[in-house]
Request: fold
Amino acid sequence: MTESGIEALVLAFISRHRLVAGDETVVVGVSGGADSVCLLHILAGCRGRLGIGLHVAHLNHELREAEAEADAEYVSALAGSLGIPVTIGREGVAAYRAERACSLEEAARELRYRFLIRVAAEIGANRIAVGHTRDDHVETILMHILRGTGTSGLRGLLPCRSLPGWGQDWVPQSGDALVIRPLLETAREETVRYCQEQRLYPRVDASNVSLSFFRNRLRIHLLPALREYNPAIDRALLRLADVSQEDSAFIELQAARLWDEAAGQEEHGAVQLDVEKTANSPIALQRQLLRMALGTVAGNTRDIEINHVEAVRRLLERPVGKWLLLPHGVVCWREYGRLVVGRLTPPDDEAARERPWLAPVPFARLEGQFSLNVPGETALPGWRVRASILRDQQVSSLSTSIPPADEDDGPCGFVADFDLQKTGSNLFVRTRRPGDRFYPLGMDSPKKLQDFMVDSKIPRSWRDYVPIVSSERHIAWVVGWRIDDRVKVTADTRHVLRLEFIG
Reply:
């Protein structure tokens, strides 16, 4: 492809996808490699026709020492030769990786986008151009397939994508940053040829051939092997991405129309979904609604995979009180008639700031001790407790076996049955106290309530709010989690007490 050919291809792609609007500044992320150098040079040559200004941004990842310094000097000199301002940043990727406990690739990507977003905010730009090529597009589609993805992941890389802070406080101004990919229809070999023709001499990063990185192994080993089975595998994957994009666009449109009906108002940073309306929707819409809720709370759906969406979808059919934790500090739990998607939030008190971030509390605070009407109903802060007594034939139909262990470690619901003779009718509700112990159902020895809560993965911020049903002698029920083994229903039970906590 000739020089004019690649420029025409890129300009046509920019126009078709409306990647720039004119009369604005675009931040160009330049690593120094052939792809980003080619992108910068083409945009610089076309900036008059596009009506845009440019600003170069380069991040030194502090991984390759002298080579990284040389990369920064090269980018700075290139920008200067083109009359474009440049910002050079530095971030310790290795330290960030250790802090986040993620892969080196993920750490570098997060820091790179954080840097690009910050530069865009500082100069008042909202578009960031990156040098992803058609080859990157193909590799990303295949990576998503290997890791497990839904329809949206099969789209691979998009020409334009919103980056609303990546769920962090990385954007010091309002509005979303838009990442644009003008080279998405350009092959990697074409960017190399362009640089050769323009005598640009881009930098070569040795880490691009290191087999320690997943993407490199896929590019160097897996794709060549797949091409032996299908020489046109690249075109096949790109066609799959195009079809998935059209399907996803339709599903997203339908889900957006349903959103106003199914999603309640955001409250304390949480989204509430109507369980009935969500569960009665086609499964494709259920998944998209949940992705929208997760993205709204987390700020994006990065690292939210199909298995996470399916886990949340299963909550629609689970008992009240079930919950699970997801990436980005997202917590989901099932309440009466609604599914709540919230965010892990730090506690307010100064002394607790060193502790891990804690889940928002779905329970009302109970101050003091409340007697229950047995039988009857009792109104508590945030709860209505219904107590009923089952007799004779009703008792014989109850199962007396210990329920099987759940597939997750969340709570078990807010309805429980007890042997009335063992509990007595003088029951009250309170929250935990120092030294509390009980016999969790299925155990023949006592356990500290604190240890039980830790082992049951009850978020720390919830533990002082969980209702405890107690008799004068001992705890009968850690509401939502486990009853005491000593008050369980057995074959000898004559009168059953059923307690139901209604939120």
